[in-house]
Amino acid sequence: MSVKNQNLSRRLIRLLKDIMAGTLSSDKKRDYILRCIHAAFAPDTVSLYKVNPLFPQELLLVDLKGLKSDVFHKNMLSSEEGILGEVFHLKAPFYIEDLTQDTRFNAYSTEFTTFLGIPLLRGGKCIGVLSIKHKEKMLFSEEGIEDLETIAITLSEILAQSFSQSFSLTSGSDPVAHKITGISLSHGIGLGISYFYIPENISHKILSDNPSLEIHRLEGALSCFNATISETLSNLSDNVEKDERLRSPLDILESYRMFSQDKGWIQSIHDAIHTGLTAESSLEKVLSDIKLKLLSSHESFAIEFLYDIEDVTHRLLNVLVGDKKISSLKNLDIDFILVAKSLGPAELLDYNHPHLKGIILEEGSITSHVAIIGRALGIPILGWTAQALTQIPCGSKVIVDATSGFVYINPTDCILNAYTNEIETNTLSRTSSHKALPPSSPPSQLTSKDGVPISLLLNAGLSLDLNHLSTLNADGIGLFRTEIPFMLEGEFPDVQTQTRMYKKIFDLDQDKPIIFRILDIGGDKPLPYFNHPANPNPLLGWRALRLLLDRPSLLKHQIRSLIRAAHGKDLYLMFPMVSEYVEFELAKKIVHQEIERELSFNRPTPNSLKCGITLEVPALAWQLPKFIQHVDFISVGSNDLFQFFFASDRCNPSLHNRYDVLSPGFLSFLKYILEVCRNHGKPISLCGEMASHPIEALALIAIGFRTLSLNPSCFLSVKKMIMNLDVERISLFLDPLLASSDHSLRKKIKRHAHQNLGLTV
Question: Is there a single domain that holds both residue 232 and residue 331?
Fold first, then answer.
């Protein structure tokens, strides 16, 4: 890069502030900056791509200065591959001086020799790519690349401003989360990007003076339709012996074929053609006549039959006009949720592929053919979701909970994680069927290979998580995150609503203990309807028990609801983010006040009541010996405890993997807490993410933990590890290592487990 060009680039940087402060539109600012880059660096081509807000796997060409290339400058490219995809995923400048010498990308060398790509970053995400290409070899200095990175920051701002507000890429967060309700037509949970299916009004001629030609066209369309149905029937028939659920779709499609061959229906279309209508208009006329007759009957079966007739008619119309509709959805390579007013069973079979994760319909019924096929294929379907097409933005993140009857639009990370875990667990349960686990230990008692009893509990946050108590033979719920149901509401649930919610959970407990963690809101779990003040360090700020003690009515209402729901049950309450004993003392005092209140009204109370703490603030560990006799149980919250122990923000990507939970210091700290509890005869467990990974669970057991609470999706792998673990041998190996100054013991534990215990963790 010449001195002259470098001076031009520096001059452009000095102009950026004035450009951004000016009154030009975003497009004109972008155009001006790209022209200046073209002048300063003298490349053959400067191009700017942005991420498609609907489909993040696509890069869309925004602007181009200089020569156009057939290889590079398509209007849309995949962010998953190619040289631009490399820049997108690296999130760092990518410079190749000579493309002919790089075997990965020498296909591009037919048009250019030098390539420089600069990512446009915002909120930790790559929202676009700036690319500069030279036909001749060009040397870019470090200063020149740095200048372009500075310029790219400004381009990121301009590009972000041009994105649709509905996708909130400018702030790096999703639009406001909300939910809508519906009726479950096919149970299950699906997660994906919303995609609309709206049948187009097919444009066609209305009149024709050649009936013979129109009848010939109709017969051709019927022949093509029947051939497609026959092919689908053949595919289903080949698999029906393996999966009896496919019998229903088979029967429904057979009825479709029979209807398309119905002589009376075909004759009605012929009659309409002979009145001077085209084949398309004749189909629509016959459909309209049938609609009038069926809708006047007010019978539910008539409505379902009408859906099927509309489905057949629409497909025939598509064939007649050249099959223009079916379908861009087939080419999607991301998980999506189909949103439609209604859907025919044949259309569902058209769109059934691995990336279809659920369906949301404005209409539909439990007995509809589309619901029957959805249940057979295991596709979650929610029907009668009022105004789904207007309430759900196309391209937004959507969770379809067709078990509970809810759609969550742009869910918070906490809700998203809860449902993701649920989906993973369901998938694991279906594929494993628990065949890999030998039935040597009774379901009520898990023991290690050398006979040490270990209790495995589940982390939960949704009522449907309770189903895993039986499927996984868990000993109970070691952590029920009560804030998650709150996040699913549009406003603070009152005492009656909360009581019903907790009663439902108790009804599913199978007489196993459930530890309810009191509301842990604030920090990284804000409620959309609660005014959380701005906080530069939210995880260290006004959250959890601190917030509840300052707003005691919230705490009183939740405890009151739990007491009422726990009638005839054992109630376990766990208070989060306790920093000193006095906070727990105040909370426990409110609990006893609520018990006395219920007794004063002669209302039933729980059989027993236990109050514990989530130990996640290091300061509390050193106070334990002084107040532990006043606590019924302790559960270590390893997620927060770890980040506070190392003063390492778990949400900061720059600190990811910098520190390890398997460091000697952290394991020694956990062992100290464990020994204090044991010396005072207090139950202790661990309920963070640490328990959900086999190697970390192994280390916890080695230092003395005998009760772990983990995510359902990880339960089987941890259980299998325990059943093959010699606790005494791993404890003897690990104990002396706790005094070491190693950064992490992970590799040593892993190697020892493999070589000496025959375990792969």
Answer: no
**Dihedral pair phi/psi, residue 308, rounded to 5°:** -65, -40
pLDDT number for residue 16: 66
What pLDDT score was predicted for residue 434? 43
Residue with tokens 């009376």: 264
The verdict on 277 and 397 lying in the same domain is no
Cα distance between the two ends of the chain: 52
The list of the chain residues with pLDDT below 50 reads 3-4, 71-73, 164-176, 297-301, 324-327, 433-442
Are 655 and 649 contacting, i.e. CB atoms less than 8 angstroms apart? Answer: yes
CATH code of the domain covering residue 379: 3.50.30.10
pLDDT, position 165: 35
Give residue 68's identity as a one-letter amino acid code. Answer: K
Q: What amino acid occupies position 247?
A: R
- pLDDT at position 208 is 86
Residue partners of 678: CB distance under 8 A and separation at least 6:
684, 704
Sheet of strand 125-134, all strands in order from the earlier edge strand to the far edge:
76-78, 58-66, 45-51, 125-134, 114-122, 94-96
Q: Among all chains, which residue has been given the structure tokens 């990965």?
A: 104
Q: Which residues pair with 78 in a beta bridge?
A: 58
Q: Count CB-CB contacts under 10 A for residue 657.
A: 7
DSSP letter for each residue of 664-695: HHHHHHHHHHHHHHHHTT--EEE-SGGGGSHH
Residue 5's pLDDT is 54
My answer on whether 358 and 481 are in the same domain is no
Count of structural domains within the chain: 4
Last residue of a domain, one of 320, 349, 368: 320
Q: What is the three-class DSSP state of 740?
A: coil
* In contact, 249 and 349? CB cutoff 8 Å: yes
Last residue of a domain, one of 295, 320, 345: 320
The residue whose two tokens read 């909300």 is 178
> Residue 169: its pLDDT value, please?
33
Specify if 751 maps to a domain: yes
Q: Which of 309, 305, 349 is nearest to 329 (CA)?
A: 349
Give the H or E element holding residue 116.
Answer: strand 114-122
User: Computed from CA positions of residues 486, 488, 492, 494, in that sequence, does the dihedral angle turn out positive or negative?
Assistant: negative
- Contacts by 495-504, CB closer than 8 A, 24 or more apart: 495/557, 495/560, 495/561, 495/564, 498/557, 498/558, 498/561, 498/562, 498/565, 499/561, 499/564, 499/565, 500/565, 501/463, 501/561, 501/565, 502/561, 502/562, 502/565, 502/566, 503/564, 503/565, 504/463
Residue (of 42, 12, 39) closest to 150 by Cα position: 12
- Inter-residue contact 419 to 427 (CB < 8 Å): no
490 and 513, same structural domain? yes
Residues 584 and 449 in one domain: yes
In this prediction the pTM is 0.57
Tokens describing residue 342: 């209604």
Is 174 strand, coil or helix? coil
Range of the domain at 145: 3-167
Q: DSSP states of 181-242 as a string?
A: E-EEEE--EEEEEEEEE---------B-S-HHHHHHHHHHHHHHHHHHHHHHHHHHHHHTTT
What is the structure's pLDDT at 431? 57
